[in-house]
Amino acid sequence: MNRRILTHLVFIVGVVALGSLIGIFNIPGEWYQSLQKPPFNPPNWIFGPVWTALYVLIGMAGARTWITARTSARMTIWFVQMVLNFLWSPAFFGFEKPALGLVVIVPLLIAILAFIRASWPFDRIAAWLFVPYALWVAFATLLNTSIVVLN
């Protein structure tokens, strides 16, 4: 199998699998249902499909960066944003602490934007792959902030 294809598969499957496992172990329960939420809170069923699609895009951007610049600052930023991404669900749902989720999601959004900016001159496709992710996490940051304020 072509090394580029294999790298893409490893990144995509790895990101989707880890994201899915974190989701399975941090399912919103009664605690989350009891929280006051803003009127723009989406239905719970939307989060799984949206995150799966985003994880595919994140994996593709990571693979592209790994292939062309594995020791670069943008690859480091990619890994940092993945760590923050995977920490958010346990912080918010696992510990049942929306404020802690906010402490994680703000640097996550900054890291996503930093990846887009760092990638733009070198790999516009990788940068564009992160745009839907940035938009979703910006929305999630607003949602997380609203939940903190309302509760």
What are the main properties of this structure?
globular; Tryptophan-rich sensory protein; Ferritin; 80% helix; transmembrane; mainly alpha; 151 residues; membrane; TspO_MBR; single chain; transmembrane helix
Q: What does this protein look like?
A:
The protein is an all-alpha fold and 151 residues long. The chain has one domain (3-150): Ferritin (Up-down Bundle). Helices cover 80% and strands 0% of the residues. It has helices spanning 3-25, 30-34, 47-69, 73-94, 98-119, 124-129, 131-150. It is globular, with a radius of gyration of 16 Å. The model has no long low-confidence stretch (mean pLDDT 96). Keywords: Membrane, Transmembrane, Transmembrane helix. This is Tryptophan-rich sensory protein.
Biggest beta sheet attributes: none
CATH topology: Ferritin
The rounded distance between the terminal residues' Cα atoms is 52 Å
CA radius of gyration is 16 Å
Number of strands: 0
List the secondary-structure elements in sequence, H or E.
HHHHHHH
* CATH superfamily heading: TspO/MBR protein
Beta-strand share of residues: under 5%
| CATH architecture assignment name | Up-down Bundle
Number of domains: 1
Shape: globular
Low-confidence stretches: none
Please state the structural category. mainly alpha
Average pLDDT level? 96
Helix content: over 70%
